[in-house]
Structures are given as C-alpha cells and as structure tokens.
C-alpha cells in the first residue's frame, strides 16, 4: 500500500467528514464526542472563499485513493482570510493589543491563507506526511501570506512546532488567548510562496 495525496472537493469533505474528524480527535487527543461539535463548523468552512483541502489516503493506486473505503491517514485544509471571519477579528485585535502598527497589520491581514487544520493519524506521524500535506495545500495559493494558530508547548517541543519552524514560520503573536478558550496559542506566519 502506498500513500497518496488527493485534493478534496467540498462534497468529498462532506462524504469523508467522519474519517477526517476521527483523525483530528485522535491526533489532538481530544475526548470522543469533540467531533460532533466540530462537524458543522468544518462543513461551513468548506463553503468559504478559497477553501482547499488535501487528504493523505492509503491505497494500492491513485485511482483507489478516491474510493470512500480507502483509509484516510491525514487531513489538512484552509481558506482565504476575510474581515468578517471571527479568527481574523481575533488576530487583528491581538495584534493591536501588542502594539503592532496599522501598516504591519494591514500587510499581514489583507491577503493570507488561513491554514485551519492539519492532522496526521498517530500511526502515520513522523514520516513526512504533515509536511507533504502543507506543501500540497500551499502550492497554488495566490495570497501573500499563510497564517495559522497552534497551541503553545513548552520549548516548542512537539512535531507541529518542529514542522512549522522547519518551513520558516515565524512568530506573529505568542501566548495568545482566543475569546472563550483558556489555552494559550501561538499565531505563526510566513510569506508565500513556501
Ligand atoms: C503536526 C503533524 C501534522 C506533523 O505531521 P507529521 O507527518 O507527523 O510530521 P512531519 O511531516 O513534520 O514529519 C517529520 C518527521 O518525519 C520524518 N520524515 C520526513 N520525511 C520523511 C520521509 N520521506 N520518510 C520517512 N520519514 C520522514 C522526519 O525525520 C521527522 O521525524 P521526527 O519528527 O521523528 O524527527 C502531526 O504530527 C500531527 O498530526 N500531530 C498531532 C496534531 C497536531 O499537533 N496538529 C497540528 C495542530 S496546529
């Protein structure tokens, strides 16, 4: 069996939402049931402008990879940031609070791809699939920047942090608290193309 990267349409995402959310919950070690809360949000995201999703699928051939039965090993998606989005409002507000000037905020936030989700099933982590998914997700973007948020971790000591640093992501905001979430996040970003 080989691993194939395939682009998902919004309909594909709808059909394979259960698999994608199961990877998300296992990868993030969230409690079972979290996927039920996220399902409608992931489907709403799939309707946003510039949405793109890529999945890593285990299959004997590229043709088999589009079968609904082929096991999914990883999922990544994102979309074009826009002023009416909660995430952009949160990050712009955070930048203002740390004293970023209006020009800097505008340069960063007026044209970016939000890398919203990136997850590899625990049994498939550590063999370069996460990097392959990001590269495929970003390979044809027209935005100026890519931005993401990731939980703060002591010493940046996990695979997500190592991956983002290796790909040249730098700090946009550190120790950021999104409204209603007690966890600290880092907002990271870099210019495109990768
Ligand atoms: C973060 C995450 C997406 C990274 O994906 P990944 O596939 O595990 O990791 P990468 O693509 O960066 O691959 C790096 C590892 O693969 C190895 N690797 C790279 N290319 C390889 C190849 N061609 N063949 C084999 N191994 C390879 C590297 O040596 C490295 O191993 P190491 O971390 O043990 O040193 C994934 O680990 C994950 O889902 N984690 C949990 C959820 C999460 O944190 N998501 C991000 C939230 S913001």
From TrEMBL:
Q: Taking every annotated instance into account, which residue ranges of this chain make up the domain N-acetyltransferase?
A: 28-193
**Single GO molecular function:** acyltransferase activity, transferring groups other than amino-acyl groups
Q: Specify whether Nucleotidyltransferase is a keyword of the entry.
A: no
Going by the entry's taxonomy, the superkingdom of the source organism is recorded as Bacteria
Q: Is Transcription a UniProt keyword of this protein?
A: no
Keywords attached to this Swiss-Prot or TrEMBL record, sorted alphabetically, are: Transferase
User: What is the protein name given in its UniProt record?
Assistant: N-acetyltransferase
Organism, scientific name: Mycolicibacterium duvalii
